[in-house]
Inverse folding.
């Protein structure tokens, strides 16, 4: 939304309604006097976005839907909107505004090719006034990914070609910001080693504290890590995905090499960089022992935090296409169901039952955030990471207890119905 605001002419009045901060009441919380409502849609928010779009359209407000889900499912999204933007906003949003002004809004806006990302309009943050937002700015230095993991929706959206932002342009956007806490939302901030080193060198004089996301490929160069740490990197979100080489090969993530995981972890820790590790369960070569093995590795590595996901077949991915072709999807258009929990397996795993996958996923979360595990994983790193370690892990433990372990009622009620329908098929 900050990107859309930055692309919008200044004579257009903007208001922000955020359904993620507080669930909006369509009768009282929407700006039903607007000329245009722009709704960003992810797959897990699609049903809710369509509900809000219907409320706007019932009041005579034109609606445009954009984001990763309408890009994957433009025909579906078009049934709920006056216009759909497919792909990135730059170069399209300006046309949406112009056509709206002339009363000639088109049903579909799509790039002929991926837009240039070397220089982009600077984001506008003045709309984000709520104290409930995390007090940091999110920026991007690159888009696109040369890899082809079958469960990932990044490549279908941003493309295989890596597009890099000019470092000088990024620095000009950062310099006037009133806070020095930054989240770089690149899917892999070290995708280009030369660009990463140029970026980290330019960031050092700005005295930032920043977080980012990185692939394991690119984190084994000590000079890159030294420059990263010197530029103010406090922590990285890193997709380890699996400790099983066969599972990684099966999903196309061949750039990850489990035999080097601990070496890279030690190098990051040596430079004072905390790691939030991410793992995916339910890959085709996963067996029931994957949960115990993953937990033991994550505790041995001493991760600052870790997330454990059940593989999700997002529309537009090769995974969704393959599982649908193999007849393994439990609910083909799962995002349109109002009565389901997105963390229950949406497909039939190859080497375990859906119940085993779900229960193993719950068990791993519980074990990793138990008090004994939290204490054993502590590593003194940067000042910020050291001070924040215990409060953040205890907060995560509360979330696990409430949102993950507290879902057994759903498991008993709805998952049983899903499995019965699948077995009948």
């Amino acid at each position: 939304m900050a990107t859309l605001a930055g692309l919008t002419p200044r004579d257009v009045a903007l208001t922000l309604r955020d359904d993620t901060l507080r669930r909006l009441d369509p009768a009282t919380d929407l700006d039903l006097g607007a000329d245009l409502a722009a709704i960003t849609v992810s797959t897990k928010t699609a049903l809710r976005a369509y509900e809000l779009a219907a409320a706007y359209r019932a009041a005579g407000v034109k609606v445009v839907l954009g984001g990763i889900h309408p890009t994957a499912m433009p025909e579906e999204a078009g049934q709920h909107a006056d216009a759909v933007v497919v792909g990135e906003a730059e170069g399209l949003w300006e046309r949406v505004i112009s056509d709206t002004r002339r009363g000639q809004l088109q049903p579909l806006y799509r790039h002929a090719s991926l837009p240039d990302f070397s220089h982009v309009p600077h984001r506008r943050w003045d709309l984000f006034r709520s104290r409930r937002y995390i007090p940091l700015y999110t920026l991007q230095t690159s888009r696109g990914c040369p890899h082809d993991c079958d469960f990932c929706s990044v490549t279908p959206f941003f493309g295989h070609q890596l597009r890099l932002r000019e470092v000088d342009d990024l620095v000009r956007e950062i310099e006037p910001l009133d806070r020095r806490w930054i989240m770089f939302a690149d899917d892999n901030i070290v995708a280009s080693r030369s660009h990463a080193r140029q970026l980290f060198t330019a960031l050092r004089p700005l005295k930032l504290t920043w977080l980012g996301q990185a692939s394991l490929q690119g984190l084994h160069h000590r000079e890159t890590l030294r420059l990263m740490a010197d530029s103010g990197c406090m922590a990285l979100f890193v997709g380890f995905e699996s400790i099983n080489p066969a599972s990684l090969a099966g999903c196309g993530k061949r750039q990850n090499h489990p035999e080097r995981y601990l070496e890279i972890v030690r190098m990051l820790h040596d430079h004072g960089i905390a790691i939030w590790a991410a793992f995916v369960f339910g890959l085709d070569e996963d067996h029931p022992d994957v949960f115990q093995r993953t937990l033991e590795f994550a505790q041995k590595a001493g991760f600052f935090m870790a997330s454990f996901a059940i593989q999700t077949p997002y529309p537009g991915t090769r995974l969704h296409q393959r599982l649908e072709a193999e007849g393994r999807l439990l609910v083909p258009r799962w995002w349109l169901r109002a009565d389901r929990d997105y963390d229950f397996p949406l497909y039939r795993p190859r080497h375990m039952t859906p119940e085993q996958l779900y229960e193993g996923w719950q068990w791993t979360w519980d074990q990793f955030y138990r008090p004994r595990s939290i204490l054993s994983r502590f590593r003194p790193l940067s000042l910020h990471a050291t001070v924040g370690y215990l409060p953040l892990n205890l907060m995560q433990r509360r979330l696990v207890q409430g949102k993950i372990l507290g879902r057994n009622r759903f498991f008993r009620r709805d998952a049983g119905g899903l499995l019965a329908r699948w077995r009948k098929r």
